[in-house]
Amino acid sequence: GTPQKYDPTFKGPIYDRGCTDVLCCVLLVIAIVGYVVVGVVAWTHGDPRKVIYPTDSRGQFCGQQGTPNEYRSRPRGAMPGTAPRCFASPPVCGVPAPGARAFTRGPSVSSSPIQICVSKCPDRYLTYLSAYSSRTPNELEYYQNFCVPEFKNLQKPPIEVLKDRECPAMIIPSTPLARRCFPAIRAKKGVIMVGNETTYDDGHGRRRNVTELLEGAKKANVVLEARQLAMKIFEDYTVSWYWIIIGLVIAMVASFIFIVLLRFLAGIMVWVMIVMVILVLGYGIFHCYMEYAKLKGEAGSDVSLKDLGFQTDLRVYLHLRQTWLAFMIILCIMEVVIILLLIFLRKRILIAIALIREASRAVGHIMSSLLFPLCTFFLLCLCIAYWASTAVFLSTSNEAVYKVFNETACQFSGQTCKPETFNTSNVTKLCPDAQCLFAFYGGESAYHKYLIVLQFFNVFMFFWLANFVIALGQVTLAGAFASYYWAFKKPDDMPAFPLFSAFGRALRYHTGSLAFGSLILAIVQVIRVTLEYLDHRLKAADNKFAKFLLSCLKCCFWCLEKFIKFLNRNAYIMIAIYGTNFCTSARSVLPLLMRNIMRWVAVLDKVTDFLFFLGKLLIVGSVGILAFFFFTHRIKLVQDTAPPLNYYWVPILTVIVGSYLIAHGFFSVYGMCVDTLFLCFCEDLERNDGSPE
Questions:
Q1: Residue 510, domain member (yes or no)
Q2: Which residues form the signal peptide (predicted)?
Q3: DSSP class of residue 315?
Q4: Selected residue with higher pLDDT from 654 and 67
Q5: In a domain, 89, yes or no
Q6: Residue 480 burial by CB count (10 A; 0-12/13-18/19+): exposed, middle or buried?
Q7: Does residue 642 surpass a pLDDT of 50?
Q8: Residues 492 and 349 placed together within one structural domain of the fold
């Protein structure tokens, strides 16, 4: 490309500019209006209760106010306030996914189990025949809680009750899970048991082994263990949340102090940061070795991670020598890599320090830039919340579909029916044992047919708007820092409010350009999501060529996404400075970078990013070590202050992740500042090259 010529009138970001990429701006507005319409339609038709609450065989919610099953929340004998649950016989109860077939056994819809709403899961083995034959009326009244609501005649012969499918043939001890009843399966000394029994009466005079129930609830135990783990984690959060907040505040204060010190002591702070990171990693290696050596000879410490498998109690892994050996190896690799990089990049670090020192001055003149990521974070949260709520309402906007279920052959079997008019239709006359029961959630209207298209549009708009918000933050920071660089007398030649000025210019003139860049990125990201979905669906397939082709496409589009992000970021800087459209900015920034490829690769992309990573690592590592010593009661001064926990890693990991996000927010401003100053520096070298002009 052609280098920029000397221009005596150029003094930084151009203020006399016009609107760019107007067509893309109009397209974005139309898309947002359409997105709002989709959201309104989804909220009108959708019902999130379908995701949370179970339904009976008629598609009616269990125990919800304003529903026919509201009274089932407190049947006879139930304790007041007990939560309504879903019970099925056979015991395969649950809410079907919208649009999916459920509640069927085998190819015939006639074998679908009956689901009813109860306030309490059964706690005993009992058959209807034994309850009916019992001399105590309490047995039959208890059993009635698990019959259909219309069943009132307790004197009806059992054979007719079971034939009419008014009551289950048998009930078994069950455990509530997600408002549903699952068989209470447990293993005792390798023997599968339900309750305290290994066999049960199926209500038809036959004894069956409880292992036959495993297929219907094979994932129930895993989910139960996961629920117990989640409950313990929740308990840990309830007793440690204020200490977690204190840890995050410490991380924020440490990040702010680090940024302020960089302004005055950039060189010293960088070298101190490098030494501190090496020391922190060194201490981590030492601690892992001490734990590894301490476990030597202890019973069970030599079990391998592969033999142990997955355990919900993660503390088990800390009693294995192999765990600490793996941690030690990882930290050693990180230590060696960092030391080697420092040795080979020692000369370039000096140049990077000069760039960081100038960036520190820029941030010092525009301190409000440190708070600007909060605005971006808030807008991203709005995008995520709108996308998630719209997705839930779209997925639950199907209608309840009822079909004909029967025990004997019937020409109407599987056909759609309406419960309100079913008893007066010809179906009951031709098929006396037929029933109109809830089958699944679906619909045959035009809206229901295009639900998948609306879901796709929802995902696409989420990516577009999220990328637009990020682009708005980048071009705003770039405009503010560019006004600092090109100001001859700082801060006199700078705008009074550089950040707000840049934000106003971006929204007023360049909404279309930001929409254009984010649209290209969103298309690539949607393609990547589609490829991931196809890869997930093809996992069970045995087509190696298709898997190979899919892997190649995933790799190519991953590289393309990275390149577009890099191009967009630098194009936004040129937009902030010159006010040109997206294509012109991208076309001008690539030659500029290529003419300075050695400077850019060696200084900006490698060394400065590496130094910023070390800064994040230092803050996260320091706060993480402090949290580790506090929550494990190893600080004697506050030993009694730390709360008792089920898993001490829960608040520690939360503090570490939160500290990284906080440090990343501060250093992302620095990263954008360095990128902007470096591009301005390259422009400056070409415009003011020492010639007579």
A1: yes
A2: none
A3: G
A4: 654
A5: no
A6: buried
A7: yes
A8: yes
Q: Helices then strands (H, E): number in the chain?
A: 22, 13
H or E, element range at 31: helix 22-45
Whether cis (ω within 30° of 0) applies to the bond prior to 158 is: no
**Does 572 fall in a domain?**
yes
574 and 638 inside one domain: yes
What was the pLDDT predicted at 209?
A: 67
Instruction: Centre a 10 Å sphere on the Cβ of residue 161 and count the other Cβ atoms it contains.
Output: 20
Is residue 26 over pLDDT 90?
Answer: yes
Chain segment 102-131, per-residue pLDDT in tens: 222 233 333 456 778 887 888 888 888 888
Measured between alpha carbons, how far is 369 from 418 in angstroms, rounded to an integer? 62
Same domain, 425 and 462: no
Amino acid at 680: C
CA 425 to CA 434: how far, in whole Å?
11
475 and 426 together in one domain: no
Q: Total structural domains in the chain? A: 2
Residue 387: both structure tokens together: 């996308």
- What residue numbers bound the domain in which 403 lies? 399-442
Indicate whether 488 and 430 sit together in one domain: no
Residue with tokens 């989420």: 462
Burial class (CB in 10 A: 0-12, 13-18, 19+), 95: buried
Distances (CA, A) of 616 to 245, 370, 548, 668, 670: 19, 15, 37, 10, 12
CA distance 375 to 278: 34
Query: Cα separation of 566 and 576, whole Å?
Result: 16
In a domain, 232, yes or no: no
Contact assessment for residue 611 and residue 349, using Cβ atoms and an 8 Å cutoff: yes
Report phi then psi at 583, rounded to 5.
-65, -45
Residues 467 and 377 in one domain: yes
